[in-house]
Amino acid sequence: MLTLTRNNTTQDLKEIQARIAALVRGIQTQPDNAADYAEALEVQLLLLNEVIENLQR
């Protein structure tokens, strides 16, 4: 399972948000690499789910 290196949830969320935004820009500017960007987006979604699970504890 992926783990976040920080316990600061706000910082974790900001980092995930920034990565997702960068990946979306990548898809928009380099559609030929969309499959690679989609894979990276999946990783970010897993991290986001981890943050959500931690909040629910």
Overview of this protein structure:
By secondary structure, the chain is mainly alpha-helical. It has one domain. It is built from two helices and no strands. It has helices at 9-29, 34-56.
SSE map:
Blueprint: H1 9-29, H2 34-56
Helix pairs in contact: 1-2
Helicity range of the residues? over 70%
The averaged pLDDT comes out at 88
* Category by helix and strand content: mainly alpha
Tell me about the biggest sheet?
A: none
Q: Could you spell the SSE succession in H and E letters?
A: HH
State the shape.
elongated
Q: Could you write a compact summary of the structure shown?
A:
This protein is mainly alpha-helical and 57 residues long.
List keywords for this structure.
57 residues; mainly alpha; 2 helices; 77% helix
